[in-house]
Every structure is written in C-alpha cells, then in structure tokens.
C-alpha cells in the first residue's frame, strides 16, 4: 500500500494534473517530474503486504497516508483526504472528499506521486519474482495476473488477503 501527501506552492502550474488512474504512465512520469522540480513538498508512505494482511486494506491505507503526512518537511494546515473517511488519530484538521482526486489538484498530485512510486516498486519486484508480470499489471488483479498466479502459486510478496491468493492457503499455511 502506497500513499503520498503533497503540499503545492501557490504558483504551481496545475495544468494536466488529474487523477493518476486517468493518466498514461508517460503522463504520470512527466507530471511527477513537474511536481518534484517545483517548490512542492511531498512525503511517501509505504505499508508492506504483511501489515496489510494483518490490519486490512482500509487501515493500511490510513497508516500509509499518516506515514506520508509525517514525512512532509512541514505540517500542513489541513489535510484533504480522498474518500469518505478522515484519517483516524491524525491531529491535523482534515476534510474527506469523495472523488477528491477528480476535484482537488493537491489530491491528484498526491495520487500521481503515490502511483508512480508504487509502479516503480512493482517493476523492482518483477525482477525479483519473474514470471508474475508485476512490471505490466503492477499487482492489479488482471486476467493475466490471475493466470500467472494460478500457474506459479503465490509469491512471497502477494497479499494473503487478496482473494485469488487466499485460496492457496489453509489455516495460514500454503497448501500443495
């Protein structure tokens, strides 16, 4: 689970900034460079698969967001959270915005930073665990990902709570 927090300068050129899911990998890369080269501040929070399995995906996303905010070099006045829930136990004013990555430039910028960081992790994992196609599907449950998972079985980095993976385990142990 990867999340990002971004503080954009008042004069930031937000043209092209959009929800990362609506952008091509090349567009995301160009926009990430623009964010990094501006006077923007950002933090990235990463929560590993074992923690996700232990605390669930929603709590892991809150934890990743909290880590990202704590990595900012400056505490923000307010945190805009993409979704319907505020981050628990965060002592900073917050505003949860459903569909925020479509309406708030700062949330879109954070989604770009998080997605490009996560994609880079998946490319590295593809080198470590060849055959799964992590560099192509980036861990999303595509048809090819499920085919590779069924052919090879789960890798050590697959989330056990991910439905196609959970079927490979019985009482927490990998079945033959």
Using brief descriptors, characterize the structure shown.
6 strands; alpha+beta; two-stranded antiparallel sheet; 176 residues; two-stranded parallel ribbon; 8 helices; single chain
Report on this model:
- This protein has 8 helices and 6 strands, in the order βαβααββαααααββ.
- With about 180 residues, it is an alpha+beta fold.
- Strands 1-2 form a two-stranded antiparallel ribbon.
- The mean pLDDT is about 95.
> In which order are the strands of the major sheet placed?
1-2
Helix content: 40-55%
| Shape field | globular
Q: Ranges with pLDDT <50 over ≥5 residues?
A: none
Question: Total helix count?
Answer: 8
Which sheet architecture does the biggest sheet show?
A: 2 strands, antiparallel
H/E element sequence: EHEHHEEHHHHHEE
Derived from helix and strand composition plus strand pairing, the structural class reads: alpha+beta
Mean of residue pLDDT values: 94
Distance between the termini: 28 Å
Strand content: 5-15%
- Tell me the total number of β-strands: 6
Alpha-carbon Rg, integer: 17 Å
